[in-house]
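fyi for ur records
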Amino acid sequence: MLAVLSGGGTAGHINPALALAETLIDRGFEVHFAGTPGGIEARLVPAANIPFTAFEAAGFNRRHPLSLITSSLKIAKSTRAAMRWFKELQPDVVVGFGGYVSIPVAMAAERMGIPVVLHEQNSVMGMANRSLAARAAAVCITYGHTLGHLTPEVQSRTAITGNPVRRSVLEATREEGRDLLGVPDDATLMLVFGGSLGAQRINDGLIALKEELLAREGLHIVHVTGPKELKRVEGALALTEEEARRWQVMGYQDQMGKCLAAADLIVSRAGATSLAEIAARAVPALLIPFPYATADHQTTNARAYVDAGCAQMLADSEVVDDAGAATIAFREAVLSLVDGPELRASMTEAARREMGHDAAAELASVVCSVLQ
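which gave:
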C-alpha cells in the first residue's frame, strides 16, 4: 500500500503527519509526502527520510481580491501537476493535514478516484480542511467539540482520534535532553517557545523578567524565539557570557522531543501540536494562546487541559503592558511554576491522568479502513 501525506505552513501540520507516517510504515505502507517548496516541510520531511515532492500553493487575502485569482490559478496548476504525479506513483490513499498545499493534492486524488482522509489538529477546522471535508472519505479530529461545527453528513464520516505525536517526542529521555542542552540534572529547566514561527509577546515577557529569573540560582532557561525574532531577542537580553551559560537563546530547535523531555516547566503558545506534545510528556506549562488564530481556537484547544489542572493559561494581552514591562499576572504565573515544585508535581500528575490513547494508531486505523 502507498499513502501520500500532505500539509504545509507550520510544524503544527507537519509533525502529526510524520507521526502517522511512522505508524503507517510499521504497518507495511510506503509513504510519500507532498508539500510546498519553501515551507518548513521541505526541511522536516526529508530529514525524516520520507520522499518529498513540492507543489506551489498560496492562500488569498480578502482585502486584495486579485489574490483570489492568483491563488486559484496556482491551485489549479498544482492540481494538474499532482494528477500527473499520481499517475506515476499510483497511491492508494491521500491524507491531508491542512495548509493550502493539501487542497490541490486532495483535489487531484478526488478526480482520480483515490480516497482522501483529512486530519484536523485544532478545535476549529482550518480553511483547507473545511473546503475538502464534504468530499473526503473520512475526517479525523482532535477534539470532540469540533463535531458541532460539522454538517450532519460530514459528522457521519468523522472519527475523534486525537493529535498524533512523533516517537522522537514520546521516546526521548531526560538524560538525552539534558546532555543535548548541557544542563545539569539537578537544575530547574524552563523551556520557552512559541511554535515554529515564534511569539513576540512571549519573548517580550521573558525579556522583561530577565533579572528576576536569573536571580534564581538553580534555574536554566532554553528560549526558542522563532527565527525572525532571534536577533531582536538576543539584543534585548544582552546576556553576558556567564548569563548565557544558564539562558540559551536559539531561533529554532529541531530536537524538541529531547527538549521537552529535559524540561521541568514550559511557557508556550497553545497550538494543537505543541499542546499534544506537552501533554504527551506531562510537563507543567503556562499557555499563552495566540489571540489572532481562527475563531480563537488556541484558547479553545487549551481550555479543557487547563481545567483538568494540567496547565495554567494567560491571555496574550496580559503578558506585558504598554511600556513593555511584565504584568503582575504574567510575573506571578511564571514564578509560581519556577518556585513551586509542588505545583509542578500536581500538574504532572493531572496530565498523566489525562493521557489517553495512541492517536497515531487510531488515525492509521481510519486510513486502513477506507481502503477495505
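Residues 66-89 form the longest helix (24 residues). thats all i got for now
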